[in-house]
Amino acid sequence: MSGTKKSSRSTAELKLRFTRIAPDKFVLPEGLFDERVPIHNSAPAQFLPIIVYRKNSAYIIIDGCKRFSILKKRRRNKVVCAIIESTLDPIKMGLLRMELNSNRQLHAREKFLFLGWLKSCCNEKTYREQIEKLRLPANERHEYEQLLVCKPWLVEAVMQATLDPAVAPEMNHLSETDAGALIGLFSSLAFSRQMQRELSEWLPEIAFLRKTALSTLLDSGSFADILAETRLNDPQKTAKIHDEAHSLRFPLYSTTKKTWTEQARRINPDPSKVIFQPSPYFEKSSLEIRIKAEDAEEIQRIVQQLASVDLYKWQELIDPAARVTPPPSNYQPDEKNSPKN
Questions:
Q1: pLDDT, tens digit, for every residue of 214-238?
Q2: What is the extent of the structural domain holding 40?
């Protein structure tokens, strides 16, 4: 029997001939299907014919690759298919396959595969037109375009939702061993995109400076202790690993922060009521002071205590990186700057 089927995205009509063919005659479309895409065993979809194009004695699947995989596993002797009798070249076959799949939610592997095929086989105009038909948002399209130049193990980590797609290009310079060590860390805990980006930069640099393998750095010492700590939950572990990596990569900041904390503790008149908060990483010369009080008299008392702190000590808290000129040896704080007993 024969009939016609109109594509939902095109004004062209396809002339189809329906028949049954042995499974060993079917060929999956080269570069346009990934067998790792999850297959949802949808009963209604199994009754739809597989659309194929005959080339010599083989039948290239245009639409229905996943349905074919299900039927093949069930060892069907014959598979119902619709043979396209119109003339198609490889480019038209690929574009038709995308068109017939554009009305459903694509898996990440399919998006990546389709975009890569379009990039390598089509001109820029056709590429832009087909991307619009696939309804890929601009940010997602950009991420997949960047992913096209990444090494296979990075792409696979993104497909498995272990590695953020925006971070993968930044790891492309790493060896497979180092990338594997980082991916292993990212798979064990849920790091944000920003944390992944920073750790993928800091940890290889730390390993290089220590002249050790990245896997050794992560499997021993402070990082291994954090991962093995049973009293910490996963969010606490991610925060501690990030902080530890930052301290090791930026030891001067770590030392400054320790000195600042000790200084703040000495100056603080009432740690239970007063909180000192510097700018992040001391990037700005500022200091935030929060006071918790239950009445006006308590606020007045705390403010008076804060006002009694020497100006030089305040300046060290506000800008610890600045070289504050120390007072002369015979310096005597005036009444405004002197501590009150």
A1: 999 999 889 999 999 999 999 999 9
A2: 1-104
